[in-house]
Design goal:
The structure is a single chain. By secondary structure, the protein is α/β, with parallel strands linked by helices. It has one domain. Helices cover 43% and strands 11% of the residues. Strands 2-1-3 form a three-stranded parallel beta sheet, sandwiched between helices. The longest helix has 22 residues. It is flat and about 45 Å long. The two termini are 23 Å apart.
């Protein structure tokens, strides 16, 4: 499913200006669809970029006392950047089970820590 999403972002006219970061080797074969939009990066770089953008959105929300989507809808904010999509492959089942075994359960929840 993610590969189809990446292909759509690569060629869809509505995706003009979007930047798609493909972490590690995921989707490497799709780069040729549109090298101007799709970029292969290290997983750490992709996650750092996502965290940075999320932090910027939080600052805007605090400064305007409105969430980003409301600000855009109501004309309180101008879009100064194009959308950035970060695509990170999930770990395989074996890696997930090992991680869950090592990290243990999350207190008060049926899930395990990441």
């Amino acid at each position: 499913m993610a590969r189809f999403m990446v292909a759509e972002l690569a060629v869809n006219a509505r995706s003009n200006g979007a930047e798609v970061l493909l972490a590690d080797q995921f989707g490497a074969e799709s780069i040729g669809l549109n090298p101007a939009r799709l970029r292969q990066v290290q997983r750490s770089e992709a996650l750092t970029r996502a965290a940075m953008l999320a932090g910027q959105m939080s600052e805007v929300e605090q400064n305007t006392d409105a969430d980003v989507l409301t600000g855009r809808r109501d004309g309180l904010l101008l879009d100064t950047t194009h959308p950035v999509v970060v695509v990170v492959a999930s770990p395989t089942g074996r890696r997930v089970r090992r991680r869950d075994r090592e990290s243990g359960p999350v207190p008060g929840c049926g899930r395990t820590r990441r």
